[in-house]
Amino acid sequence: MENNPLFNAGTGSALNLLGRIETDAAIMDGRTLRGGAVALLTGIRNPIKAARIVMDETEHVLIAGRPAERLALANGLQKGNRRVPRRVRAWREALNQLKTKKRKGPSEKTLSLFLKHRGDTVGALALDARGNLAAGDSTGGVTLKLPGRVGDSPIIGAGLYADNNSGAATATGLGEQAMRLVISKTACDLMRLQPAPKAARAVIRLATKKVGNGTGIITLDRAGRFGVAHNTRHLCWAVRTMSVSNQQMNGTRN
Ligand code: ASP
What we know:
By secondary structure, the protein is α+β, with helices and mostly antiparallel strands. The chain has 7 helices and 11 strands. The model has no long low-confidence stretch (mean pLDDT 91).
C-alpha cells in the first residue's frame, strides 16, 4: 500500500505546510509486545520497513528524523517517497483555503480543514494460526501539518496496538484525537471482554463524545472477529481469512 500513490503513505504521502513529505509508521508484535516506529522520514520509500528495523534491530521503540533515515539506509532500505501531483494539488488547494480561513478566525476552522484534506493512512492487522496478533500502520500525516508534527501513527497505543491477550487495533483520522484517547490501546482493553466489532463501535462512540468527529478504527480479536467503525465520512477496508475475502469501500458513517 505504501507503493500505491492512492494512499497517504510512502509514495503519495500528504504534504506539510511547506509542501514537504514527513512520514510516520509503526509495527507491533502482540506476542512479545515489542514495537518499532519511525517518525518524520523524508526520503525512505517504505517507512513500515524502517519501523520493523527499529523493532527487530534496536532496543528502542521510536526513532525520528535523520537518524531514523540513516538507520533505514544502513539496513538496506531504498530511498523514495516522491511527491505525487494529486497531493501537490490538494496541498495548494488547502493552502489557499487556509489563507482565506485565517482571515476569518483560528483553530476550529483549521481543524475542519485538516478533516477535509486528511485521509488515506493505511493500517493492517493480522492473526496467525498460533494466535499471534500483529498491527502495522503508515502515514504521511495530515495535509498542512506543521513541519515536525508527529501524529498518532507511530505512537504505540494511539495509532496502533497489539496484544495476544486482548486484541489488535489501528486507527486513522486526525492523529491528535487518537493520541488524546490512546484509542488503539483503549480498543484492545475492551476486547478482553468484548468482541472486536463491539469494541470498535464503543471507542468511536467515545471519540465522538469526547473529541468529536474525525476518527476511524479497525479491530481484530483473539477469535479472529474483526470490527470497523468510524465517525468520518469514509473508511475503506478489506479483510481476508481462510474462508472469506471481503472488501468495502466508502463505508458509511456508523
Ligand atoms: N492519523 C494520521 C495522522 O494524524 C492521518 C490519517 O489517518 O490520515 O497523522
